Amino acid sequence: MKKYAMLLAAVGLVAVSCNDHDFDRTPPPPAPPEPVDYTSGTADVSNYVSIGNSLTAGFSDGALFVNGQDASFPNMLATQFKLAGGGNFNLPYMADNLGGATLGGQPVLGNRLILSFATGSPAPTPVDGQGATEISNVISGPFNNMGVPGAKSFHLAAPGYGNVQGVPLGLANPYYARMASAPDATIIGDALAQQPTFFTLWIGNNDVLSYATAGGDGEDHNETNNIDPSTYGGNDLTNINVFNNVYNQYIQGLMAGGAKGVLANVPDVTTIPFFTTVPHNPVPLDEATATLLNGAYAAYNGGLAQLAGLGMISQEELAKRTISFAAGANNAVVILDEDLTDLTGVNPALVNMRQATADDLLVFTAQTIIGTLADPNNPTSINGVAIPLADKWVLTPEEQDAIANATDLLNESIDNFGAQYDLPVVDANAYLKVVATTGIPMRDGTTVTATYATGGAFSLDGVHPSPRGYALLANLFLDAINAKHGSNFPHVDPLAYTGLYLQ
Q: Pairing mode, if any, of strands 101-103 and 133-134?
């Protein structure tokens, strides 16, 4: 009995020992992370001002609206700057999240786009309602975000660029009108008046983009050597000497008071969804329709062959211009091409038309006209099939070359200015090419790409980034600032921002 009692005592000790051991194995709570001592390094970010166009303003989904302005890359930078001495960052907010606006009560700016399934297929559609923003109601500044949608390089220094009172709207900028300090003010003047300690300057995109989105339907002033921007049309390519003159003035003015900053270059616009979404061969035809069309184009093809036989065009151009359809889903659209040999002096019917190839880029808005009737009373007048698409709907290889040349000239200048003034240059061009090719992997296993609507990098207008796309761009600026100034501003989390507004 005594031995049994001793055994029970031993078992009790073991049990206590095991319980104590189990308790000791419970992991302690994680230690709080060490606080990070953020520094701006050699940069003074206490008064940050951003200068640019729609990419700076936070424009997306075809409009400027409150949530988009909050998701602008400068506002993201300003949030990070507050970790190390950054001050307030005032934005010229629109009145609501619709994006539309009126002037004198008349609608002048459309609402933002959403992806609507009303027709059964997803389509970008303006949200319902009338935006409450009235352009003539000038809001009180100053504003740290001086991004003005639509602005070209020379517009930043144009007096009265925001004066929409008493002049046609096309001659003034409605976005700047509501935030300008005076009717004859300039964007750069309003920026300089704030005496910024730090700036970002991203301008030059629209000097190329407007020509591109118009399908190359504009003048190339690098060819004409026209250096008078007051004579430019809205869709013209800016002469590089004009750009260099104003850009140099901007940097000198911004740095005169000791401010430091960051420049950004111009992306290759032909890589964005606006030019990569609509295929060159979207026309489905049955056998009977294909035969009918080929018969209709027989005289055109025969006339070309006759002139080729006379040596008036080459065999290569004959092959390029010969139009042929087949039964199936992938027939190329018919387009006008001003770079073809003009044969209308010999035969007015031999207009400069051909079928598009994979080397042509159809603009995003071309989908609204392909397959529609040019004449509602003529069921055979199908645009892109019986009626060639006008120049504004297509970027031909020659027009793409003009865009590439203009972009290269602008970016070479921006790099040179960066070296001259010891300013870092964000290579947005190279980065967005990566987005368009391999995409950018995210920590959640997804990849941000340039695929329209689903890729996450671009908004529904096919031109401007989504909030997530702007976050990725903000990180490029932060990297450049940290590398140049020895600061340690943390990255913005792209996954905290949507790749597509759902409503």
A: parallel
Cα–Cα dist 181/176, whole Å: 9
Structural domain count, the chain:
2
Same structural domain, 61 and 186: yes
Please tell me the pTM assigned to this model. Answer: 0.91
**DSSP secondary-structure letter at 110?**
P
Same domain, 316 and 427: no
Same domain assignment for residues 234 and 119: yes
Residues 314 and 378 in one domain: yes
Residue 354 is classified by DSSP as E
Q: What is the pLDDT along the chain (503 residues), one digit of tens a residue?
A: 333 333 333 333 333 344 444 444 556 677 677 778 999 999 999 999 999 999 999 999 999 999 999 999 999 999 999 999 999 999 999 999 999 999 989 999 999 999 988 777 788 999 999 999 999 999 999 999 999 999 999 999 999 999 877 555 456 899 999 999 999 999 999 999 999 999 999 999 999 999 999 999 999 999 999 999 999 999 999 999 999 999 999 999 999 999 999 999 999 999 999 999 999 999 999 999 999 999 999 999 999 999 999 999 999 999 999 999 999 999 999 999 999 999 999 999 999 999 999 999 999 999 999 999 999 999 999 999 999 999 999 999 999 999 999 999 999 999 999 999 999 999 999 999 999 999 999 999 999 999 999 999 999 999 999 999 999 999 999 999 999 999 999 999 999 999 999 88
CB 364 within 8 A of CB 273: yes
Q: Which domain holds residue 95?
A: 48-276+398-496
